[in-house]
Amino acid sequence: MMRLLFLSSFLWAFSAPGATIAIIDTGFDLDHEFLRPKILKKETDEEGIDPALSNQFHGWSFHDNSHLKEAVIQDQSILQEILLFRNLRAKGHREGLSPEEFEWFGRKNADKDFMKKVKSFKKHAHGTFVAGIALREGENINIFPIRGLHIPIPVVAVKDSTIEPTEPAKASTAQARFQKEIKNSLDRVSRKFRKICHYLSLRRIEVVNASYGITYKNIMTKFREMHREIVGQEIEEHVLMDEVNKYFEELYRRSTATIQRYPRMLFIFSAGNSGLDNDAFHHYPSKIKLPNTISVAALNGEYLATFSNYGQASVDIGAPGVAILSLVPKVYSKDGAEIYSPSSGTSMAAPYISNLAAQIINANKKLTPGDVKRIIMETGEEKEHLKNKLVSAALVNNQKALKAAQFSHEMSLDAAINLARLNLVPIEEDQISIGMAPAISAEALHKRAMESIPQAITPEEINDEVTKSESSLPKDQEKEQPDNSGQLPSIPPETPKVSADPAPASQTSEQSLKPSEEMPASSSESQPSLPEAQSPDSSPSLQQ
């Protein structure tokens, strides 16, 4: 019986086209040898859309990745220092640093000019990092690039019936202008999200990965600055709180309505990296709760990473999110060799789940997004220490989830999940993705996760490398293959010599970092315009 079950799964996977993961991010390297064959090809006619619908996307380009043709770090010696800095941070997360390493790391971390370069590199490479992790397992998976962050998007064509035009900020009083700016910000954020979702639905995308977020603290800061700029005085705290709450509630409402229009797409959201309880604090879009949304926390081994947001009612499941290796755009490779670099954050945990979701869909195309969510949530490894942190109280278990997907061909979903949880039926090889090595075993996954366990990592230790507030853009603009078992990039001769001696437990690699929540939300804090799009959420982001 089981042989027939696995054979049917194999034949199903062979006959059905592979699942596609759309990655809404800063753009990624379309020329990378690993990514290029897996990118869902665009067709002719206005980004591959039926010509009859092309007017709905007039002036919009979701695939402009030309910015990745040129490196933001041109000096190879600086690039090698940046890679070393990132490697040492990952090593500090896992095992601590030697005194020499700790001294070098601290010195570079105190160098503001160097840290600007580190942040610029991370922001530039973020989408490529995420894409690599989204492809960490499974050959029969496509990715679809959506550069939806940090780019100017023109005003939407009037003929687009899905979009409400943004009103000009004309008002008679300063308070009225303040309210108008809030409304325009809501319009810009929700408009872009609606536009992207509509576009993806036309391409029949199954999984949408969104490693970004608008945070409570950022909006508090932005509203305070904007009120001071427009009205000329400080806003009272209770009034500020009320405006922030209304802003998020309206944003949730609009985006919930958008997602409900597309029940065949599964949305994977990163939970955020401020170390906060999302049940108590706003975080968009991860707090949107629907049968086809999953909010993902970052785990350090089997424990919640200390920088990760959580929420017993609002954050669904945990996935590996500490010192995860992934791809670096090839523009940074001097000799053409692939470069990998580690990152930590819920931005890394979300594509891990997106990859698993795509494998589950490949196993059984008849599963709905709600079914896929149930499989991921209910086959996870429940932990006592996660019961008050996550909806599922669990860390993801790939092997059990994939078993449940295979079993679901021959039995009800409830029975398939229950049988997979019992762990009575071994699967010797992954029959889901043709031509791929066996799926990682639970033991191997556990070993890898445990090997990555460092000392505690706080939000202060995840440096805000990725984003700057959208306030730096004009107001009329919108804004793994390898996993953490791979080898780190080699350290070039010109980098400082470091000792192999273990560091004292107190010497984590980033203890001297200032929490990004306490830093200015952007380098453009003198321009307190409201955020116009989402920002990558691989660091404790206030970036919206």
Protein topology:
Blueprint: H1 2-15, E1 19-25, H2 76-94, H3 99-109, H4 112-134, E2 141-147, H5 174-202, E3 207-210, E4 212-215, H6 216-231, H7 237-260, E5 266-270, E6 283-284, E7 293-300, E8 303-304, E9 317-320, E10 324-327, E11 340-343, H8 346-363, H9 369-378, E12 381-382, E13 394-395, H10 398-407, H11 413-422, H12 442-451, E14 535-536
Parallel strand pairs: 1-2, 1-3, 3-5, 5-7, 7-9
Antiparallel strand pairs: 4-6, 4-14, 7-8, 10-11, 12-13
Helix pairs in contact: 4-8, 5-6, 5-7, 6-7, 8-10, 9-10, 10-11
Short synopsis of the structure:
The chain has 544 residues and is an alpha/beta fold.
What does the model show?
With 544 residues, the protein is α/β, with parallel strands linked by helices. It contains twelve helices and 14 strands. It has helices at residues 2-15, 76-94, 99-109, 112-134, 174-202, 216-231, 237-260, 346-363, 369-378, 398-407, 413-422, 442-451; strands at residues 19-25, 141-147, 207-210, 212-215, 266-270, 283-284, 293-300, 303-304, 317-320, 324-327, 340-343, 381-382, 394-395, 535-536. Strands 1, 2, 3, 5, 7, 8 and 9 form a seven-stranded mixed beta sheet that branches. The protein has a three-stranded antiparallel beta sheet with strand order 6-4-14. Strands 10-11 form a two-stranded antiparallel ribbon. Helix 9 (369-378) crosses helix 10.
